[in-house]
């Protein structure tokens, strides 16, 4: 594990390492320090405090190991073995100018070969509903409305697919989607 001194050196604030060590500030405690705490530790330059807080934001996620690491569940038996999918990768940020529609076949597969162990993974479930669909149903014939809903579902499915999501169920004018 990285020490506070090493971490402060890594972000260019090594001059404050002594104060952190004297006060027995660990990385876990550092994530909960306030602006006043940093001033008390001798970090009076505002720019240094801003650098510190920005680095803490980047550090906070990996410290929560239960959220970032899957926990392995052993296989039930030789005859009834659970298979695990690949480790979930974070949702990637896509620039606004990037094409929304993608061809999944052109991408490298994310899933590894199944193993004899299962794992716990984070899953995000999203329900997406078309606003104003009831009003649309009063203004258009059922055939036209069906075409409109089909176009909506196709477009929404393509966007969801571009973020490696999966449409689990079409529910009228809504979609139940899984990410992860």
From TrEMBL:
Domain SAM: 1-62
Gene Ontology biological-process entries: cAMP biosynthetic process; intracellular signal transduction
Coiled coil (residue ranges): none
All copies of domain Guanylate cyclase, residue ranges: 124-180
PROSITE patterns linked to this entry: GUANYLATE_CYCLASE_2, SAM_DOMAIN
Pfam name, any one: SAM_1
Name recorded for this polypeptide: Adenylate/guanylate cyclase domain-containing protein
Lineage: unclassified sequences, metagenomes, ecological metagenomes
